[in-house]
Amino acid sequence: MAPKAPHEALPQPLRTCEGLGVLHLFYRVNLNVWRARTSDERAVALDYLETLLTTARQQPQTQILTLAMFTRADLGFIIITPDFHDLNALEKSITSSLGPDVLSPRFTYLSLTDKTDYGPDKTTPKSRLEPTLPNWEYVCFYPLTEKRGIDFSSANKRSAGIPGQLRVEAAHAGRVRQIVTVSSGLDDWACGVTLFAHDPLDLKAVVQERTNLAHHDSSRLGPMHNGLPLPLKTIYRRVLLVV
User: Fold this and answer.
1) How confident is the model at residue 10 (pLDDT cuts 50, 70, 90)?
2) Domains of the chain, start order
3) Among candidates 136, 49, 51, which has minimal Cα distance to 94?
4) Which residues are within 8 A (CB) of 1 and not within 5 positions of it... i.e. 6 or more apart?
5) What band does 178 get if pLDDT is binned at 50, 70 and 90?
6) Cα(194)–Cα(21) distance, rounded to whole angstroms?
7) Residue 67, helix vs strand vs coil
8) DSSP 3-state assignment of 104?
9) Has residue 127 got a pLDDT over 90?
10) Rounded to whole angstroms, how far apart are CA atoms 125 and 131?
């Protein structure tokens, strides 16, 4: 995905036997550093990032969602791809794309897609392992950890231990879609929940229900990251990289 050095040996693809790699990247933009660069340097950097994502999206089973973020970050990416070398190279290239210290990671989360059924939507194990990022207007992501011995490393225990926490109830079906990814051994959290909605109010209801359940079963919801899926050029203007 990322440009290779002229004589760099290409590593063999690193893929799991089941599922796809998923990376959530949320950045703060340092406008003081950005504006210290020349106008030509800024234009080249913006073009480079856009070309980088366009090239990456051409890879098989690869999806990238770009987000204008609220409060905790400015710019966000959700990346799904099968090869962990590609995922790693793309992460490094995005972070450095606009120049040193312009993009500062505020929160990152590495995980895998999961075939467990957490909701009433009629999905198949294959569609859960190879999900399609919905083209909906609003996104909320949060990680979730377990307490009191809930073991996310076992598919059977995972299915038994967290359905109440992760299921989208029938009342929200069709208005909220989610992708649940698992990260035991990959990240500090047990799983990540990415919610999609047309109306942010629908997400409020789902998250409130889960917060109540978390208090009951002593699991813990991590920091919420909310964003608006937009084309990259629109986000450039939104975060004042282009004025």
Assistant:
1) confident
2) 21-110+230-238 (3.30.70.1030), 115-227 (3.30.70)
3) 49
4) 52, 55, 56, 59, 62, 81, 86, 89, 90, 93
5) confident
6) 14
7) strand
8) strand
9) no
10) 10
Alpha carbons 85 and 90: distance in angstroms, whole number: 8
Q: DSSP letter string over 205-231? A: HHHHHHHHHHHHHT-EE---EEEEE--
Quickly tell me which residue has 């399609």 as its tokens: 132
Of 155, 141, 230, the residue nearest 189 (C-alpha): 141
Cβ atoms of 2 and 51 within 8 Å: the answer is no
Check if the beta carbon of residue 225 is closer than 8 Å to that of residue 69: yes
* Residue 52 predicted with pLDDT over 70: yes
The pTM of the full predicted model, rounded to 2 decimals, is 0.86
pLDDT at residue 56, rounded to an integer: 97
Mean pLDDT, residues 81-109 taken together: 97
